Write a sequence for this structure.
């Protein structure tokens, strides 16, 4: 422990360990358990009415994730703040590693093998980016935010991982990362007109960017514009998902009774289309109930951000909230045929170890902000 | 950073965070709206799509109706067709499985390649046929070795079999895969492996025999694999058709006749066809298993025309068997009386032409009975001259010659009887000499053996019976089994009696032309008429040099014909025999007719009292609801 850190901790020790445990937002933890339970039920059905091969592992992973989350929740937020840039560097390093040695999955280099675990660094990167940007803007008063030069380093910090992710290529995650970064910039107080400027520039280069997209990415965008044009090809997923969702009706077909999912008309039902699986069996009532649970998470993140006394905590909570919101929105908008298929899972419901791990890390940090909402950071954001 | 500055920063954050939060919740609200739209507003539409996705309806082929003979013997049946199938998905190694299988069941050359091609063309869980028509032993061998044959399964379909093979082929017909022209909108016809009647009863009663398709609704998954059966609606089996032919008699008759011979035996009282034999025939079973191109070529190109039923499609001049028609026409028109005698000097002169009697020495003075009995040509030359062709043709048609008959055999030819008007349409005059020649059954006539048998039946019964085969459909008798079902010919009984008696004399009286056809004692008397028709004109020169038909090549010899009915006292059976190039009616056709008639009478003799069977039949008919007139 460095001298600086000791000084920091002795000046304001913050809550004690037991106190921190009580400060953990248990309602939020319960909410996450409810969402994970929804995932268990849906995966049980996707497994053909059996905990094998999805639901059982899902529960196990959530259990591990919960421990990790609680651990993170009690970790001192100031320590997290100090390590933000180190984490950022680690994230970028992993992305580079994936670019060099990553496993090829679905035509994209996205995965990295970490012993028995597979890690998708782009997922982790979004969280690490939020931390880094929050650390950067934590010190900045209105005056400094107004200086264009002050904004250049964080802008580069956003564009570097976004570029690496797009190169994988993973269009969806790349765009989400960009939006998460943008949300932190926005909450930190960057002026409207600067967003307009960057947005305008982005629109100008969009046609050029489209030319550089991979064929399957172009196909996704084109099929989105007219899904019926290719019912057995790229549009098949969207159409089948809509059929499964729509045929669920108000009350659904009943648990394990979803025909489209069980007869494999539904593609990737245990991952990207798990929400469809649920909605077919439990109808509009079930799908709106889950949507409400997910909305509660978003609201919790927002309230946590508003309540936090440190700018770092506020920005972290807001950024993580936006990150989570984008997962949920892109996934459900995708399965309802509202936006192009993006390959984005639904956190805590979709099957998949990497997504579960990163989600729980995010929720752990969010809980940590909640726990440390009144903890003072140094002298006025220095 | 000052406290004020910090507060301003927090206020800005709060504003922007709330704006962002509102945006997020708004977008989540949008998702809720989308879900509502999909699941509630359009839910029904998607539910329909989902059902279409998962439910696949398949047709079930109903069993084809059997065909029975008059004694209830099965003459067309559905046999089990054992097949070996291979499901690629279940076989670890298709090549290895086939290799093991070929040790148990030799596979023809090229079959392995065909099977592998079939597998590639289908989804891997769809079985392909390895071999059909397995014997029971082959089946057992495969079943016993099932553990060594992953992916191999055995299933059973049906195939049409004809136990009498070629003996009833011309009557029962055969089945074949439907052609474009057979597609009548019945979805059943689109089923693989379905067969439709192509000839004979199989074709005539196609709709009756076919039945109606059942349906089975299957739940299938995204790749079309059947998960389970949801609903099954059995089809309606094809109805059984009972025909009037006696299978045993038919076989006995066909065994007796040579190539080029036709025999038709009918029930004279109601027109039921008891036997209908034409040589040579063909084996209809070969069509069921798929006929080879070589076999088909052989059948269609053969001069003996095995595929053609000569009793319904063979066309012959009737010769002297036509003389009853002329005689009846003459009596009805009163151009002669039964007692009028005409003198036969052995020839008949008309202008510059001389027409010979078959008996060059002449028959002397003859009345109609004597002229028929001795088959005097001169008598009928003169009578025909007095009648004119049109009155002869009208009588012929009344007796069933040269008209469409109601026989249930598609493609049956009506035959032809000339008229003056027909000749005029051809732009040629009808000469008196033509009439004279047509008086003895020569000339433009083209008649089928079936129509000649019909004539004999009508002469015997005095009723306009129609030759027919159908006795019952689905157990319900059809109209036409009783004599009363048929209208009277409207001929004077006195005239008919005279002609019948003359026909009796032909066989049973000294001087008759068909004494050889006399039945053995105890079977009653046969009444008939011979006919011999030239296929080549004999020139005067040949005649003078002592022409003998026996020395001619076979295909130049005359056809031999005989028509008859029996027993004379109570006519029950009518028969026509045509022996192509048989040389003479009395020599070839009459003895054969006798043999057949003995066969008929011994086989079909009613059990006790002669009318017992008929009465029982009539009683049964009375109970049944009155069937519609005409046969389906």
């Amino acid at each position: 422990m460095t001298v600086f850190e000791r000084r920091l901790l002795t000046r304001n020790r913050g809550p004690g360990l037991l106190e921190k445990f009580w400060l953990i937002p248990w309602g939020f933890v319960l909410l996450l358990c409810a969402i994970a339970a929804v995932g268990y039920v849906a995966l049980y059905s996707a497994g053909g009415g059996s905990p094998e091969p999805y639901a059982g592992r899902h529960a196990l992973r959530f259990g591990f994730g919960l421990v990790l989350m609680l651990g993170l929740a009690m970790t001192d937020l100031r320590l997290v703040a100090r390590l933000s840039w180190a984490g950022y560097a680690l994230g970028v390093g992993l992305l580079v590693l994936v670019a060099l040695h990553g496993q090829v999955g679905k035509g994209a280099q996205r995965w990295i093998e970490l012993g028995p675990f597979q890690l998708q660094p782009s997922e982790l990167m979004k969280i690490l980016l939020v931390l880094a940007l929050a650390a950067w803007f934590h010190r900045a008063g209105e005056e400094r935010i107004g200086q264009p030069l002050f904004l250049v380093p964080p802008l580069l910090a956003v564009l570097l991982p976004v570029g690496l992710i797009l190169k994988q290529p993973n269009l969806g995650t790349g765009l989400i990362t960009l939006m998460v970064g943008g949300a932190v910039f926005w909450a930190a107080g960057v002026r409207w007109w600067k967003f307009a400027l960057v947005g305008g520039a982005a629109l100008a280069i969009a046609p050029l960017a489209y030319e550089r997209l991979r064929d399957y990415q172009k196909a996704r965008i084109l099929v989105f514009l007219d899904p019926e044009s290719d019912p057995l090809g790229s549009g098949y997923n969207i159409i089948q998902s809509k059929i499964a969702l729509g045929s669920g009706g108000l009350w659904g077909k009943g648990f394990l009774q979803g025909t489209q999912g069980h007869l494999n008309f539904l593609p990737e039902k245990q991952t990207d289309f798990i929400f469809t699986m649920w909605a077919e069996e439990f109808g509009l009532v079930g799908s709106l109930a889950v949507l409400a649970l997910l909305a509660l998470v978003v609201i919790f993140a927002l309230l946590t951000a508003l309540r936090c006394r440190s700018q770092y905590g506020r920005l972290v909570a807001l950024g993580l909230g936006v990150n989570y919101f984008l997962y949920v929105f892109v996934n459900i908008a995708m399965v309802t045929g509202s936006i192009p298929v993006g390959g984005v899972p639904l956190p805590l419901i979709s099957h998949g170890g990497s997504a579960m791990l990163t989600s729980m890390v995010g929720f752990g940090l969010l809980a940590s902000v909640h726990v440390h909402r009144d903890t003072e950071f140094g002298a006025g954001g220095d | 950073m000052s406290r004020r500055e910090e507060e301003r920063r927090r206020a800005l954050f709060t504003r922007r965070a709330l704006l962002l939060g509102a945006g997020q919740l708004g977008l989540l609200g949008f998702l809720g709206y989308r879900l509502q739209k999909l699941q509630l507003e359009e839910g029904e539409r998607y539910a329909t799509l989902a059902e279409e996705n998962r439910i696949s309806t398949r047709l079930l082929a109903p069993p084809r109706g059997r065909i029975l003979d008059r004694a209830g013997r099965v003459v067309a049946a559905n046999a089990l067709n054992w097949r070996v199938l291979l499901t690629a998905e279940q076989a670890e190694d298709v090549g290895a499985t086939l290799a093991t299988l070929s040790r148990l069941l030799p596979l023809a050359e090229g079959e392995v390649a065909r099977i592998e091609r079939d597998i590639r063309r289908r989804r891997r869980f769809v079985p392909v046929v390895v071999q059909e028509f397995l014997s029971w032993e082959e089946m057992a061998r495969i079943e016993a070795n099932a553990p060594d044959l992953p992916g191999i399964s055995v299933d059973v379909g049906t195939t049409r079999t004809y136990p009498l093979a070629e003996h009833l082929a011309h009557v029962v017909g055969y089945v074949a895969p439907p052609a474009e022209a057979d597609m009548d909108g019945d979805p059943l016809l689109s089923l693989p492996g379905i067969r439709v009647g192509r000839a004979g009863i199989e074709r005539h009663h196609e709709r009756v025999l076919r039945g109606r398709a059942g349906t089975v609704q299957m739940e299938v998954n995204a790749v079309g694999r059947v998960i389970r059966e949801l609903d099954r609606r059995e089809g309606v089996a094809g109805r059984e058709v009972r025909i009037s032919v006696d299978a045993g008699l038919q076989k006995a008759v066909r065994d007796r006749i040579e190539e080029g011979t036709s025999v038709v035996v009918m029930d004279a009282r109601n027109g039921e066809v008891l036997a209908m034999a034409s040589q040579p025939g063909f084996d209809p079973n070969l069509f069921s298993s798929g006929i080879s191109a070589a076999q088909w070529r052989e059948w269609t190109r053969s001069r003996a025309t095995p595929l053609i039923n000569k009793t319904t499609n063979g066309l012959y001049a009737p010769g002297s068997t036509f003389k009853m028609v002329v005689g009846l026409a003459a009596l009805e028109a009163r151009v002669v009386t039964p007692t009028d005698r005409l003198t036969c000097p052995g020839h008949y002169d008309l202008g510059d032409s001389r027409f010979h009697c078959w008996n060059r020495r002449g028959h002397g003075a003859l009345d109609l009975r004597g002229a028929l009995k001795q088959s005097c040509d001169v008598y009928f030359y003169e009578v025909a001259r007095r009648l004119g062709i049109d009155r002869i043709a009208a009588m012929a048609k009344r007796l069933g010659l040269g008209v469409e008959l109601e026989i249930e055999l598609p493609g049956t030819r009506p035959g032809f009887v000339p008229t003056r008007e027909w000749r005029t349409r051809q732009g040629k005059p009808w000469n008196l000499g033509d009439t004279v020649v047509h008086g003895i059954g020569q000339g433009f006539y083209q008649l089928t053996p079936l129509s000649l048998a019909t004539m004999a039946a009508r002469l015997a019964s005095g009723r306009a019976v129609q030759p027919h085969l159908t006795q019952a459909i689905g157990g319900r008798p059809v109209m036409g089994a009783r004599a009363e079902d048929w209208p009277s010919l409207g001929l004077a009984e006195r005239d008919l009696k005279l002609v019948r008696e003359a026909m009796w004399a032909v066989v049973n009286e000294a001087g008759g032309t068909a004494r050889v056809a006399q039945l053995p004692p105890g079977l009653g008397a046969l009444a008939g008429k011979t006919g011999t028709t030239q296929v080549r004109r004999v020139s005067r020169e040949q005649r003078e040099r002592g022409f003998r038909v026996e020395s001619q090549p076979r295909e130049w010899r005359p056809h031999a014909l005989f028509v008859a009915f029996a027993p004379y006292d109570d006519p029950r059976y009518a028969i026509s025999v045509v022996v192509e190039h048989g040389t003479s009616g009395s020599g070839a056709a009459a003895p054969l007719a006798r043999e057949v008639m003995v066969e008929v009478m011994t086989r079909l003799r009613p059990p006790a009292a002669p009318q017992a069977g008929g009465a029982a039949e009539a009683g049964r008919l009375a109970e049944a609801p009155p069937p519609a007139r005409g046969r389906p």
